[in-house]
Amino acid sequence: MSDNRLAVQLLTGPEAPEPNGVGEPGLSVLDAVESRRSIRRFLPDPVSNDTITRILTAAARAPSGTNFQPWNVHVVVGEARDRLSRAVIAAAEAGERSDEYAYAPAPIPEPYLSRRRQVGYALYNLYGIERTDYESRKRAMLRNFEFFGAPMGLFFTMENSLLHGSWLDCGMFMQNVMILARAFGLETCPQQAWCEYGRVVHEQLNIPDTHVVLSGMAIGKSDPSAPENSLISERVEVSQFTQFHE
Fold first, then answer.
1. Where does the Nitroreductase domain lie (predicted)?
2. Which residues pair with 154 in a beta bridge?
3. CA-based Rg of the chain, rounded to a whole angstrom?
4. What DSSP state is assigned to residue 108?
5. Where are the domains of the chain?
6. 152-159 vs 72-77, strand pairing mode
7. Which residue among 10, 74, 174, 243 sits deepest, i.e. has the most Cβ atoms within 10 Å of its Cβ?
8. How many angstroms separate the first and last alpha carbons of the chain?
9. Which residues does 199 contact at the CB level (< 8 Å), separation at least 6?
10. Angle at 14 between CA 24 and CA 17, to 5 degrees
11. 201: exposed, middle or buried (C-beta count within 10 Å: 0-12, 13-18, 19+)?
């Protein structure tokens, strides 16, 4: 592991060329944040190692308590990406779930359950899937493990001996990655779904048991023709989650 704790592991096949285009130079920080969305169908255009290294270098300016910089990143492309996809899909189809950690309480309380259902039904509607069509819903879920067609996947880990503060730090680092990607004409989809098969991810990427896999992330160019990419999940008004103390 490198001294600066960024520890970017590039798992590559043949070197990928630079993607076409120069990003969105007119995109302000405000626009980049306000128009960010989770993309669920990507174009196959490759993302170069140089591009992702540039994004991760800038993202590492994220704040971290007493400068811990607890994040580690595994980058998968080419055969490494495909091999991981095959292994996790096989585990999912065999019902061999191995949760890395509990993402949400069980049962999920309100209002969170309703919000979850609302975005889920909206996505299935864009896919053209009926609520009772469980087979199609399963196939849609498995597309997570194909990175929604993105040519590159990222996996974020940290040492499992660290506590809640480091989870906050890693979340801010991931947000930086998602916003910075847009400066290069790229989009992302954070994918905690991979953590439901954490054992397989550990094995395929040689992630030590002393690390927890926090999340995966698909990154690439958005497919503008995909109906599912038009989904904009609702956000509650500021007045519903903010109190001003004067």
1. 34-221
2. 75, 217
3. 18
4. P
5. 8-105+146-233
6. antiparallel
7. 74
8. 47
9. 91, 98
10. 25
11. buried
Lowest mean pLDDT among 19-23, 165-169, 222-226: 19-23
SS3 194: helix
Superfamily of domain 8-105+146-233: NADH Oxidase (3.40.109.10)
Per-residue pLDDT for 54 more than 90? Answer: yes
Residue written as tokens 């038009």? 230
216: nearest Cα among 206, 228, 201, 231: 201
**Residue given tokens 């395929």 in the structure block:** 204
**Residue range 144-194, pLDDT digits in tens:** 999 999 999 999 999 999 999 999 999 999 999 999 999 999 999 999 999
Residue 104 CA to chain centroid, in angstroms? 17
Confidence of residue 88 (pLDDT cuts 50, 70, 90): very high
Tell me the torsion sign for CA atoms 218, 219, 225, 228.
Answer: positive
Name which of 49, 218, 223, 73 is nearest 150 in CA terms: 218
Measured at the alpha carbon of residue 219, what is the angle toward residues 217 and 225, in degrees to the nearest 5?
120
Instruction: For the chain, give the percent of residues with pLDDT over 70.
Output: 89
Q: Which of 32, 155, 160, 144 is nearest to 92 (CA)?
A: 144
The number of beta carbons lying within 10 Å of the beta carbon of residue 100 is 21
Question: Which residue's structure tokens are 């189809």?
Answer: 93
pLDDT at residue number 25: 54
